[in-house]
Prior knowledge:
The protein has 347 residues and is α/β, with parallel strands linked by helices. The protein is 45% helix and 11% strand. Strand 5 and strand 6 (201-205) form a beta hairpin.
Amino acid sequence: MSNTDTPLIDSDAAWAAFIARDRHSDGRFVGAVRSTGIYCRPSCAARHPRRENVEFYATAADARAAGYRACLRCKPDEVARDRVAVAEAIRLIEAADEIVNLDQLAARVGYAPHHFHRLFKRATGVTPAAYARGLRARAAADALSREVKVSDAIYDAGYSAPSRFYESAAARLGMSPSLWQRGGAGVTIRWTIAATSLGPLLIAATDKGLCRVAFDEDEAKLRRRFAQAEVMPGGAALADLAARVVALVESPDRNADLPLDVRGTAFQEAVWQALRTIPPGETRSYAELAASAGNPRAVRAAGTACGANHLAVVIPCHRVHRSDGTMGGYAYGVDRKVELLDRERPR
């Protein structure tokens, strides 16, 4: 570490992120180049300087106080502004009675619509419209569990008409509103236990997609989890999907486009979507995951969302580590987490 590197910053890790042009590190620190007098975000596309010419600062303000000026190419001062804009957009979406259209949302936070659409999706893993739909679908699910009449629940969730609910939220719930209201009674879940090199793996799916993938679980636990559903052996109907899940366990570095039937809060779904965007062989801290899900302060909630993940390996929560770089926990054992990560690394 140079004499001027901020002690709270791991300069070796910062330099590695700088060399990798890791955009997930943007906003966590800036790199200041003595030979040019400028500071950059880690993902800056400019030619890399020599290591001995670079020092790191926790914030752009710290770099400016030390006499550096902002890079005109990567515009590091905009990172904080972008995050504030996304946070404000989330607040507006959550406070609105109706879905706010993209033009209105972008205007409220001071960005061009197409640029803000990309910015929001990069930060949260979903588009503004998808985030809003997630909130409304969750509200509908909660209302359906309370209301006697399905129509009352639909209006309570903020839909202008039942037809709008059936166009969007019904597909996300994976079952009809009346079935949801009865705790999923009548929904059919097919299951199997497949042998893998990491141990027995329970695989369960509805007609819509996978609803549970877990090591060390059996039929009894599945029935307790889905107490109101019809649970039956998968047989031939599940064979192909189960084989694809097993292949993903054996080679987690491959890309898998598997049908899913999982639901959570809007933030949980944003976390799960962000997990699926982490490339095989890479990891993120819980803090980075929270930021990707649109709420940089919700580090603990991001960890809870990982714990609520129903689909081991398919939604790769094994790619998340603690902010101090240590491995952290894993619902199916740290040894499995280490092995999955090892299998993803390039040979």
